[in-house]
Structures are given as C-alpha cells and as structure tokens.
Write a structure and sequence with these properties.
elongated; about 210 residues
C-alpha cells in the first residue's frame, strides 16, 4: 500500500510504501479490546490504603477480663467491631493491570495501524523539525494538512523536544516517539500524523 507524503506546507512531495505485515492486517477487535482494557487498568494509581487492626494505634491491653463482667468478650479496643478500630477487607496498594505477552501487544498495535491505514487516516510528513517552541507553528502545519479540528497523534523518530513542547497546549493533539507508540493513543486519535523517519521506526519495531 502506498500513501502520499506531504511537506509542512501541505503540498504533496511523493509517496511511500507501507509494509503489509504492519499496515495491511485483518484487525483483531477482540485482541485490541483486551489490550485497551489492560492498558487503562495499568493507568490506575492503585494507592488507596486502609489501616487494619494491626495498624491502628493502641489496643495492646485487654479492655476487661474474659469472664464475669456480663459483657461480651473483648481482646482489644482496636477490633473492627469497635469505634476507632481497624477496617476489614479495605483496599491496599496494588496494581490493577494484568500480564499480557509482548507479541500480543504488538499484534494489537498492528491491528490498529492496519485499521487506520484502511480508513486512510494516516498522514505521512517529510519532517516536523521546528526551529523554536511555538504552538502556532504546529497548528499551522495541521491546518495545511486540513486536520486543524481533528484529534491527532503525532509520531516522530527520536526525541523532538521543540515539537513535544509545542503540542502541549493543543487539546486535540498528542505527541509520542514512534518507537513508544501505544495502541490506546493510536485508537483514540482520528488521524495519525507521522514523519518519514517515524514511519521507518514504526515498521522496524512492529514489523
């Protein structure tokens, strides 16, 4: 599959071939769903915590003797049955994600990329090097590509600090290094804007 290559002014400057093993697969919706559920679960902080009866201060002494008082047996004032006592089965810090094999993750990302390519929602740009940090310049490039009101994921090879910082104030734009692209950002974007160098990296990593 061939796609057009554009410059920053939005003019067509050539074409580039997309590797079929990355961009021409039959999407596996069940696998993509499993990937997204696991990805979102891993974004949860999981730092909620409660104190059990061993964590609550006090209660080292038995409140009263075992027998003869007419009251129920009690071994500590920090029992969960008492006011100020510990919590039973409360949350503790933990991870919510589950293990997912690397090959399954890569196959899910290939499925999303193939779906984007089939829907013609991939825009390849020569390069996105900026000489200064300027949000207006990124917006101008997207306007030239007729993507100014679309949710876009921008992928570039290496660390493009100027581009990264220039995208921060655009609510519909997300920047990522090509080698670190994840399926959630790809699926969430209306269009994927990728540089030629970024495309080569994506095909190297996921090919």
């Amino acid at each position: 599959m061939d796609v057009k290559v554009y410059n920053k002014e939005g003019a067509e400057v050539g074409t580039v071939e997309l590797r079929p093993e990355v961009f021409e697969l039959e999407p596996n919706e069940a696998l993509v769903h499993q990937y997204i559920v696991n990805y979102l679960a891993r974004q949860r902080q999981g730092n909620a915590d409660t104190r059990t009866r061993t964590d609550v201060r006090g209660g080292g002494r038995k409140p009263w003797r075992q027998k003869g008082t007419g009251r129920a047996r009690a071994g500590t004032i920090r029992s969960p049955l008492w006011r100020g006592g510990g919590t039973v089965f409360g949350p503790h810090p933990r991870g919510y994600g589950s293990k997912m094999p690397r090959k399954m993750k890569q196959q899910a990302i290939r499925s999303v990329l193939s779906d984007k390519a089939r829907a013609e929602r991939i825009r390849v740009v020569e390069d996105l090097q900026l000489d200064e940090i300027k949000t207006r310049k990124v917006l101008g490039i997207l306007t030239n590509l007729d993507l100014q009101d679309k949710k876009c994921l921008i992928l570039d090879e290496g660390r493009n600090e100027q581009l990264h910082l220039s995208c921060r104030n655009l609510p519909r734009v997300t920047y990522s290094r090509a080698a670190l692209a994840n399926g959630y950002d790809l699926l969430n974007a209306d269009y994927v804007v990728i540089t030629k160098a970024g495309l080569d990296k994506v095909q190297e990593v996921f090919g």
